[in-house]
């Protein structure tokens, strides 16, 4: 949704808005340029015709039989010249009036007052689709499970997974549950039932060992749904104890994993002692990009080799650090100040994208990465987690943070923020069909509908709509 669809938001363009026309102002069709052209057309055409008549009458040879013939030839030529000049003046007058006329009204001004935009329909159809495709199974080990697999419409019947159900719960909490077709309580119960015997959660491809990024995702969803803090605390401690460089070096060096854990634990355990450590590790993993004025940003790793500067991972870091700043604060702490400086540089880096148009620029390209961990039962083999990233949604969320707006206003970057945010949101909007987002497989035309992508798309559009809202009157 563009600013034209929702009205001007909290950003002010540095170009002043056009002043409304005065009631006493000249109509474009009777403006001085138009009146001058009309007067010139009438007078000039007659003068041109008379001039041609006089010229021809004086230069026609005497061999033409009689004065009547000379008058006839000169008169017809003069009349033709008059008509041609008059038509040319009329065309010029029409063009002058068109250039002076105001542009046609588009966007909300062209809609009936109070007409709704498309977003409520998208939310409603997304909710209906999720309700229709929720999976309910009686599992002999876990009992009744209500939720979703990793993607909607999977070829083989699949039971609910922790990842799919956690994102589905996030969606329901974002949209609100308008009626009783779906119970968030059943989703919460399912997530607890899917907990691994030794604690924590893992993705379907990760086997029976808990992984911090999935555990933090589930804990964040449970915390939003109002789960007991005491019950959450035990799982938070288990997650934090296993997320160390000694036990999970791969995860601690991954920008994606660290930002996911940080965001989830900020929801589930805002006073956890591990949060400042994760914030510091994330800030220290920023790198300098000489192609963008040596501004700091992030690659896919927090330790060498960092990888190339990545808009996706920079946006993920900005979102996580912004949330950490609001929960943990940043005053009076040198490490927190470093985190703030890194976050602000990351925002400037995102705003410095040199490519256009900003709804299709390379910064918005979706990415795919692998998180490869040695298996604890067989270190010679690796567990591989395939992670796909909806880049446009992350950029939109990063540019919608309070930090981004503060930087833009303080440094005169409001136009840059507006243009790049509009581009990111337009790319998010373009990826959905009836409120469900599609991910094309890399090697085929088959398309997936992952729950995480629909959550990220709906979340970005909802945040943008709230950010853009301007009360009338």
UniProtKB/TrEMBL annotation:
Residues 1-33 are annotated as: Disordered. The chain crosses the membrane at residues 36-59, 71-92. It comes from the Bacteria. Keywords: Membrane, Transmembrane, Transmembrane helix. The keyword Transmembrane helix applies. Coiled coil: none annotated. The keyword Transmembrane applies. InterPro entries: Terpenoid_cyclase/PrenylTrfase. SUPFAM superfamilies: Terpenoid cyclases/Protein prenyltransferases. This is Terpene cyclase/mutase family protein. It comes from Streptomyces chartreusis.
């Amino acid at each position: 949704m563009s600013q034209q669809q929702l009205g001007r938001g909290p950003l002010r363009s540095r170009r002043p808005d056009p002043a409304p026309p005065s009631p006493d102002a000249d109509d474009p069709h009777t403006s001085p340029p138009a009146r001058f052209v009309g007067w010139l057309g009438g007078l000039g055409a007659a003068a041109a015709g008379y001039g041609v008549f006089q010229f021809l009458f004086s230069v026609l040879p005497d061999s033409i039989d009689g004065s009547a013939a000379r008058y006839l030839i000169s008169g017809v030529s003069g009349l033709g010249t008059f008509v041609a000049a008059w038509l040319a003046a009329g065309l010029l007058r029409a063009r002058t009036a068109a250039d002076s006329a105001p542009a046609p009204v588009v966007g909300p001004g062209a809609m009936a007052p109070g007409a709704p935009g498309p977003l409520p329909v998208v939310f409603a159809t997304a909710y209906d689709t999720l309700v229709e495709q929720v999976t309910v199974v009686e599992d002999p080990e876990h009992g009744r499970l209500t939720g979703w697999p990793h993607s909607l419409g999977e070829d083989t019947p699949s039971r609910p997974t922790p990842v799919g159900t956690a994102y589905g719960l996030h969606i329901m909490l974002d949209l609100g549950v308008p009626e009783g077709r779906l119970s968030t309580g059943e989703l919460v119960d399912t997530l607890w039932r899917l907990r691994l015997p030794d604690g924590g959660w893992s993705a379907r491809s990760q086997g029976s060992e808990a992984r911090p990024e999935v555990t933090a995702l589930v804990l964040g969803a449970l915390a939003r749904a109002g789960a007991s803090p005491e019950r959450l605390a035990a799982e938070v401690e288990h997650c934090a104890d296993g997320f160390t460089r000694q036990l999970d070096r791969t995860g601690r060096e991954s920008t994606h994993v660290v930002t996911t854990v940080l965001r989830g634990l900020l929801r589930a355990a805002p006073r956890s002692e591990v949060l400042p450590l994760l914030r510091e590790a994330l800030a220290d993993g920023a790198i300098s990009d000489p192609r963008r004025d040596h501004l700091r940003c992030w690659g896919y790793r927090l330790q060498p080799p960092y990888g190339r500067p990545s808009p996706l991972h920079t946006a993920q870091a900005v979102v996580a650090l912004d949330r950490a700043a609001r929960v943990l604060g940043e005053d009076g702490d040198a490490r927190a100040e470093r985190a703030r400086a890194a976050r602000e540089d990351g925002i400037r880096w995102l705003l410095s994208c040199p490519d256009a148009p900003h709804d299709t620029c390379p910064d918005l390209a979706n990415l795919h990465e692998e998180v490869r961990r040695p298996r604890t039962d067989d270190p010679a083999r690796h567990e591989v987690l395939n992670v796909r990233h909806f880049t446009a949604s992350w950029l939109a969320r990063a540019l919608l943070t309070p930090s981004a707006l503060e930087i833009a206003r303080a440094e005169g970057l409001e136009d840059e923020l507006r243009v790049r945010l509009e581009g990111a949101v337009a790319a998010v909007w373009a990826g959905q069909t009836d409120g469900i987002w599609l991910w094309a497989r890399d090697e085929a035309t088959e398309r997936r509908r992952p729950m995480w992508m629909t959550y990220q798309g709906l979340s970005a559009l909802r945040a943008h709509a709230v950010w853009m809202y301007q009360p009338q009157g």
